[in-house]
Amino acid sequence: MAIESSQGSLQSVIGALVGNKTKPIARQAAMGFFTDTSLCIGCKACEVACKQWNQLPASDPIWTGTSYDNTGALSATTWRHVQFIEHIGRREQGSNGLHGGIDAQIAQAKSDGVIPMIAPGTALPFFNTDRWLMHSDVCKHCANAPCQEACPTGAIIRTEFDTVYVQQDICNGCGYCVVACPFGVVARDERSDHTAHKCTLCYDRMKDGIEPACAKACPTDSIQFGEVEKLKAHARERLGILQARGVQEARLYGVDDDILEGGLNASFLLLDEPEVYNLPANPARPSNNVVPASLRTILAAIILGLFGIIFFRED
Amino acid sequence: MEQIRLPQALRETVSPASLVERLATLTTGYTPDLEREIEEEPSYYDYPVLKESTWHWEIIWYFFFGGLAAGCFVIASIASLFGSREDRAVARTGYYLSLLTLLPCPPLLIKDLGRPERFLHMLRVFKVKSPMSMGTWGLVSFSLFSGLTAVIQAARDGILGRWWGARLLAGLPQRLIALPGVALGIFVGGYTGVLLTATSVPLWSRSKELGAIFVSSAISTSAALISLVLRLTGAPAHSLHKLERLEWTALLVEMTGLVTFLRGSGRAARPLVGTAPAEHGRAFWGFVFGSGLSLPWLLQSFSLLSGRRKNKQNNGRGIVISLLVLVGGYFLRRTMIEAGRTSSRDARTTLWNAKKVN
Questions:
Q1: For residue range A19-40, what is the model confidence (pLDDT) as tens digits?
Q2: With a CB-CB cutoff of 8 Å, which residues 221-280 of chain A face chain B?
Q3: Is A142 an interface residue toward B (CB < 8 Å)?
Q4: Are residues B355 and A194, on separate chains, in Cβ contact within 8 Å?
Q5: pLDDT at A291
Q6: Does the beta-carbon distance from B78 to A308 stay under 8 Å?
Q7: Which ipTM was obtained for this model?
Q8: Minimal CA separation from B151 to chain A, in Å
Q9: What does the pLDDT look like over A284-305, one tens digit per residue?
Q10: Could you say which residues of chain B have pLDDT below 50?
């Protein structure tokens, strides 16, 4: 007994010295989101569900004055953000050709003295895609995540579900991930613990086999959760259906475009150019800059070093 | 009393704002056309695409002192390895200054963290892809060499007394230790620029010259600091002359780097060179490119030419040149960090920058 217990304590001491060599958790299928903005109705249930599940404080109420979006942007305490994009008269020559933009309709109403008929299939003039685009933005869980590549402490890791996760007890708030992220997602929480925060893809729920809070709450299935490959196949299928029905402006973001040289585990179906949603079309991968920038630095150093040697040698 | 007034047109062409505007357009090759851009380039109500950097005065001063520590070490080592007996004054001053300017760096970096008490977490991993991780390890290793060479120098100068420990230290091969130190010194002087380049901020990342600019600035500011101290302590004129030529060369390389940087960045460089309220053109053209680089470079050219003829040192002018270069080096880092924040706020330029074919 005595020998056994001393062996046990010896092992624990060695374990503490060399680090516990517990086996890493077995890899699971890559999980992610597919956010289909053609189904989004802008109810913000995802924003609320995310805040409730993750116990995130409400942001200070502000009135942006630009749209129904008073959240503004993703932040350290807002991990889902619903954008409201107003496009009055966006499709002057609308795809169904029956009505122009709102301005044309107003002009027609003024000249005829009658409110024009609404084109079939767009019964609600204020809630069709001519007028509104809605988009629930979230961390993209990039296949090659710049925040994870930048992190100097190893706080940002890939989980067994291939999602990008910030370990709050490791992060020391250096702020490098904040400037590395090309989507402006990860942010330092200056009000509470001063570390970097972002969407965890509800890692805790996934561990128990439950879908993330936002996907669960979404009443129209605009936010879909599942295996990345299945979601991407579904995204292509959905794009085909929409285009067959005449929604030519529909496009996918993060599925087949190889964004950041590997695509995004949280992808989107958009109804306009990515820029309309403040999404960069083809962002550069920051870590690709290390080698060219280093080579130029070395070149400058060699030039100055040689001149230094020449100047100090001659006598 | 009627004041003499210049005609409006003339005043506009000679005003500092229009001069800065012309320089900005000339160097970046980009003329802002807000009306057309707002019309043609969609964005989400111009809300920022990126998050602003959390780096403030601590990082600016760290970049400045870190550059000095690295540059002083490199110059001191070149003087010690290749210089004459006279140049030992340069080596001695350089090694002391390297350690002195290195001392504020760790506190500044730790103060800048969101959770300063977790600074040791930086040493959990060794990550080649992350310039900040490599920078941490580089700085830690460099400080060993900087500290050791300075202590050896102190022992040789008799500052540490005459006991056996001091004699042992004085006997250590300082020149041999300097060799790996120089490599680490160049790394510490330049990695900060590479670190800024490996981000998504358009100003920092579009052109890849920042590392080269920072390492040249490390050499120019260090040469300025060493020659300033040597002038005040009355050092050999010949060594000063060598230092000034190195400084002159570094200023030239730095200016070339900056011009390449501005041209390569194009529209993304606007926050650094422009005149709009949040842009830093006045400080950049005034304190960095004007009084920090081109003015001291011209003064230096003049005194190198006249000095060769008369073989006489002009201490007053030399001190002014040194101070101008040091102030310019500080403002280079300050305008770069602050303009980076402006750059992150500019949604349309961020989206434009992400359009390029990689």
A1: 666 778 889 999 999 999 999 9
A2: 272-273, 275-280
A3: no
A4: no
A5: 96
A6: yes
A7: 0.92
A8: 24
A9: 999 999 999 999 999 999 999 9
A10: 1-2, 311, 358
Each domain of chain B, given as residue ranges in start order, spans: 16-353
Is there a contact between B200 and A172 if contact means CB atoms under 8 Å apart? no
* Closest-CA distance of chain B to residue A4, Å: 33
| Helix B210-233 and helix B315-345, axial crossing angle in degrees, nearest 10 | 150
Q: Could you report the per-residue pLDDT of A102-157, keeping only the tens digit for each?
A: 667 677 778 887 766 655 554 444 445 566 789 999 999 999 999 999 999 999 99
pLDDT digit string, tens, across residues A164-210: 999 999 999 999 999 999 999 999 999 999 999 999 999 999 999 99
Measured between alpha carbons, how far is B251 from B240 in angstroms, rounded to an integer?
16
Distances (CA, A) of A47 to A51, B54, B145, B185, B227: 6, 25, 52, 49, 60
Question: Do A240 and A117 form a contact (C-beta atoms < 8 A)?
Answer: no
Q: Which of A80-94, A109-123, A211-225, B208-222 has the lowest mean pLDDT?
A: A109-123
Q: How many CA atoms lie within 13 A of B81 on its CB side?
A: 20
* One-letter-per-residue 3-state SS of B299-311: HHHHHHHHHHHHC
Which residues in chain B are closer than 8 Å to A178, comparing Cβ atoms?
51-54
Structural domains in chain A, CATH included, are 31-60+70-86+127-281 (3.30.70.20)
Could you say which of 1.20.1630.10, 3.20.20.70, 1.10.260.40, 2.40.37.10 is the CATH number of the domain covering B16-353?
A: 1.20.1630.10
Give the A window 34-63 contacts with B, CB below 8 Å. none
By the 10 Å C-beta count (0-12 exposed, 13-18 middle, 19+ buried), B124 is classed as middle
Fill in the amino acid letter for B275.
T
Q: Which amino acid, B100?
A: L
Q: What is the pTM of this model?
A: 0.89
- Which residues of chain A are within 8 Å of residue B217 when distances are taken between CB atoms? none
